[in-house]
Amino acid sequence: MSYIIVGLGNPGEEYEGTRHNSGRIILEAIRKECSKDDFVFDGKLNALTAEAKIGKGKVLLVAPETFMNNSGKAVASIVKTKAAKPKSGIKGKIADDLLVIYDDFQLPLGRMKISYNKSSGGHNGLESVIRAVKTEAFPRLRIGTAAADAKGIAKVPHGDDKIERFILGKFKDAELKELKKVAKKAIEVVALWIKEGREKATNVANSS
Questions:
Q1: Full-prediction pTM beyond 0.90?
Q2: Which helix (H) or strand (E) element contains residue 114?
Q3: For 70-120, how does the pLDDT look when each residue is reduced to its tens digit (9 = 90+)?
Q4: Which of 6, 9, 20, 205 is catalytic?
Q5: Separation of alpha carbons 71 and 96, rounded Å
Q6: DSSP assigned state of 170
Q7: How far apart are CA 129 and CA 15, in angstroms?
Q8: 158 an active-site residue?
Q9: In sequence order, which residues have a C-beta less than 8 Å from that of residue 94 and are 6 or more positions away?
Q10: What is the residue extent of each domain of the chain?
């Protein structure tokens, strides 16, 4: 069985360590833990890719080198809609075998959630993937980036300008330490998704 894990973000040094690049940050943590390979640039996909092995699953890790709004271009040629028959290997895998990791400013930092078969919720990178694969029927791992109040409720920024400044802002050192903890949990959740299925992974991710 083979799988595709896509970490959303923007390429370039200026975007490294930003909240909007949480998907790429988590993907890099997965690569370090589960792959012997470094990321290499795939010109056909316009993405950084690396192969990994998790359990008995063969995994292709994909970090689109397009900007966030065009993330789907890197996915379209390797993922088909659920109606398509999966072919051997990675190419042509159905959307159920795709996991997209991305930032969610409506979740507190330290939290994650798996969603399935839902809309993009206004996330432009995810919307691009949905358009590219022509279905919402794939799992996605949402990584919280918001500050939280005393009750643990996310302090959500309001207004387009404030949201943009927030998501493109860089994590502080203390926040990066918290994100490293999240990455460890994300690796566990991804392994559960591959080894035991989406339901088990969802239970663990959404209880964090």
A1: yes
A2: strand 112-116
A3: 999 999 888 864 434 443 344 445 788 999 999 999 999 999 999 999 999
A4: 20
A5: 18
A6: B
A7: 20
A8: no
A9: 79, 80, 81, 82, 84, 85, 86
A10: 2-206
